[in-house]
């Protein structure tokens, strides 16, 4: 039997939530022998700085080695390669969409999908690109995939369309690495402080300014202090410089850059902190739930769908420093944190395991493929009757 060819296309595999999800999803899809799974990256990926080394051997990895900025060579090379390969399903993510322009025009047999990983306006703020994408969504040549109820609403408001497919994100089971004992010794043993972990790129939407100010206020007013460890690559250098000045010589706040072993840090933490001003469905939050690290988050995007306050985590009332300080106190001094940790793990298993997300993707693909073939047969029958 000929295998069904599924391709996931993304700009690059830098250390971000969407990139992490795409690698996990491809790895999970490739476990089934009836699918031939490709992970296609437009850009070159450094094995040490990206998720490329996490790609399973059953997944066919292809890169067009683009550098910064638009590349006509990569654009034409991708189109030529896709015309030759003719995937059954081609699913794009982030800025991979526009590189499909010529293939979208030429292909008559490929099913196209695009996942909107953030609120719609943040994912595609450019008016020209929005118009381009809306055209393909409207004629149903590209099926839009949203990842949360909030994401669904923002898609419908932004594009004035109601044809999206909701498929939630997921993450595989996480296992601590050999570095865990060393981190535990460094941060936990002999230290009388709450360990807080923030995982997120240094960008304005993650709002690390609010988190730092709330932690500083906590440490000024409370006897027991918080040690905040900020994990994430610097994407906005001017913002990073501002945050460094805000932190100053505070010994309780530390920037450590991007890390491959985030699970080790989450496993030693008293809480996972996310202070974003908008979100889709954060992979970092799913990771925190999976290891029973109590999430303390702002109530934005899909986060409210993932956290039941006081049951699986804690939500601030708004995105103010005062509100986040209050919820941080509530979480860290909660009398039954063991129950919340357990609830988080169970909630992850039932709702956000990568297997559940992969099954939902495959069900969507197979339904659309069957429908597509049925329409082709009907069209052929109509032609033969004429």
UniProtKB/TrEMBL annotation:
Enzyme Commission (EC) number: 2.4.-.-
Family matches, as Gene3D superfamilies: Glycogen Phosphorylase B
Root EC class: transferase
Keyword annotations: Glycosyltransferase, Transferase
Keyword flag Transport: no
Pfam families: Glyco_transf_4, Glycos_transf_1
GO terms for MF: glycosyltransferase activity
UniProt xrefs under SUPFAM superfamilies: UDP-Glycosyltransferase/glycogen phosphorylase
Domain of life according to the entry: Bacteria
InterPro entries listed in its UniProt record: Glyco_trans_1 (IPR001296), Glyco_trans_4-like_N (IPR028098)
Positions of the Glycosyl transferase family domain: 185-335
Record domain Glycosyltransferase subfamily 4-like N-terminal: where: 16-139
Full protein name: Glycosyltransferase
